[in-house]
Amino acid sequence: MATVPLIHTRYSYSPQRPSSSYSASNFSSTFLSGRNRGQRKHSFGAQAMSTSTTQGSSIGITTSNLNINGPQHLLVLVHGIMSSSSDWAYTEAELTRHLGKNFLIYASSSNTYTKTFSGIDEAGKRLADEVMQVVKKTKSLKRISFLAHSLGGLFARYAVAVLYSPDTCTSGHLGDPANCAIENAHRTNFSKGGLIAGLEPINFITLATPHLGVRGKNQLPFLFGVTILEKIAAPVASLFVGRTGSQLFLTDGKPNQPPLLLRMASDCEDGKFISALGAFGFRTVYANVSYDHMVGWRTSSIRRETELASKPICGWIQAYC
């Protein structure tokens, strides 16, 4: 099966103190800043903010077109392996404080702790169902964004493929044309790339996510690049972290079916994975260059071995695509 490159990235190095964590205030200021990324404006806030379609046309958002009856922008926070929504407590509070009432900040709770072992596909489907329930309960919503950490980034990528609709009148409306016509009349213009859960997709952001899996040299840093340990880890991963382990090490393939992560690098019968990502106005990955013991920076920054710097600097990489 032929696959296409997952994403094309441009990189800017940001040296910082050695740390594997990200500051919530840094993110909110990034979301609100509206700084140019090439020909695009990175946006998230309601004040002096603009959103951009994948074709590059801008839609201004002002106080006059905010829905005073409820939040318009759903921001879904997705945690990583063996974690829970409580991991986002501080970030959720800070983002709520900085972004204001026009945002509904929602920390996912459908894949807590050992549920993260059931497989990226199963967790992704649960996340998609959870997001749809939130959308159905909050009628004022018009836009959607995802902020996902570590393994949660893969869950989110699978979920958006499940939630993806290539037209204006499918996902999130239970196939009812009447509902679709009425609700879409109140929505903003959106990217021709489609909808996610019936909403306009704006930002898709991952933090230290193993997009390429953890198979290969130094992709699971706590093994210290020791070849024998890396070879042993692959076949036994499923004993410790279930189907998810097999999928991360790309050992879940069958004679007539490539591993899941390879299938997720293209549009295939499992889902429109690339089309769903392409529907978002902005797609950003953050990768730890050092001090991340779980996820190597080649897999989290989506790069080939030959594209890595020979002497990594301390800090993190931010990539826009």
Notes on the protein architecture:
This is DUF676 domain-containing protein. This protein is an alpha/beta fold. It has one domain (10-216, 248-320). It has helices at 24-33, 89-99, 120-137, 151-163, 177-184, 227-248, 260-263, 273-278, 297-300, and strands at residues 10-14, 36-37, 40-41, 49-52, 58-61, 73-78, 103-107, 143-149, 164-165, 195-196, 200-207, 267-268, 271-272, 282-288, 316-320. It has a seven-stranded mixed sheet with strand order 1-15-14-11-8-6-7, with helices on both faces. A two-stranded antiparallel sheet has the order 2-3. The protein has a two-stranded antiparallel sheet with strand order 4-5. Strand 6 (73-78), helix 2 and strand 7 (103-107) form a beta-alpha-beta unit. Helix 3 packs across helix 4 (151-163). The two termini are 24 Å apart.
Main traits of this protein?
single chain; alpha/beta; AB_hydrolase_fold; DUF676_lipase-like; DUF676 domain-containing protein
